[in-house]
Write a structure and sequence with these properties.
five-stranded mixed β-sheet, 2 domains, globular, Nucleotidyltransferase, domain 5, alpha/beta
Length: 345
Amino acid sequence: MSLERPVPEPGDPVVLMPASALVLGGDLGGTSTRIVIADHEGNVIGRGAAAGGNPTSHPASAAANFGQAIHQALDGIDPRLVSTAVIGMAGGPALSNPDIGARFEAAWSGAGLVCEPKYIGDLEVAFASGTPEPDGTVLIAGTGSNVGLVHDHALVRTVGGHGWLLGDDGSGFWLGREAMRSVLQSIDLREPLGVLGEAVVAATLTDPGIRVAAEREGYDNLRDELVRTVNNRPPVMLAELARTVVAAYDADDKTAQALVKRAAELLIETVSRLRTTSDNGPLVLAGSVAGESSPVGRLLRQNIHEHFDGEVLTARDGVGGATWLALGALDPALATRANHARLVS
């Protein structure tokens, strides 16, 4: 096997690297698992995808989906050539569970991979997908919300991310919960439900017969049916109502507009716990709620410069960010801006 010598910084030891060395990047989310194989020049040579690979939200199936995506990405590739792997996931702490950890290890070794995978948080991957800069701040607002401070491409501190019960202010869950609370308050006060309220009822009581019966029997029955239905589901499913809030916002519903405005304010407040006005590194925004197409994300971008200096960027392809970090772990000289642009575009 031929060897090439990367150009070291002054004083760095010389490391010989196989010319055929490959890297693996992974992005394991609640809805999808994505794996990329790239050569040491940043060219993607393999991709794989499967259903959700977050071991917290999918403890029974995450490892199997992880393995499926790896096998697909490695199709026609010798897994022994993969020298470095960086895998981002939101549910990383779940790997400390011996059973879940063993399943992930079995999926990894079962694919013939021999290098040691490095699991990192979704904040680091999101930041790397948005910028090649080594230092800055990242906000993820999707189902939950979390902010991280990044130094030298590594996460050094976080705020928020306390989960649906204790925090996640401004997140999709927060929007859904507050929308439901506004409906219940309107019912208690015998007020008209409005565009948002009617949409929340329809999205929650999906059986038309149950909904019509509850509405016909009066506000108290409708309230009881809503409360019963919500309490019989996993709490995090309230996040699904975030889409209802956005639709009502677009229909000029005043309650939805107030919730969207407050969500943006809460997210800015969360960032302010970590980032000061003197920080000038980039702020990367990630997640569906903070996205450019979301009204919350649009308000964030309009108002964030009133509070913080620095460039505001949007996270892009998470698995590309993880793959770029894997290149840097293989050899820092490979973590170039050109490779970054190639992998996250």
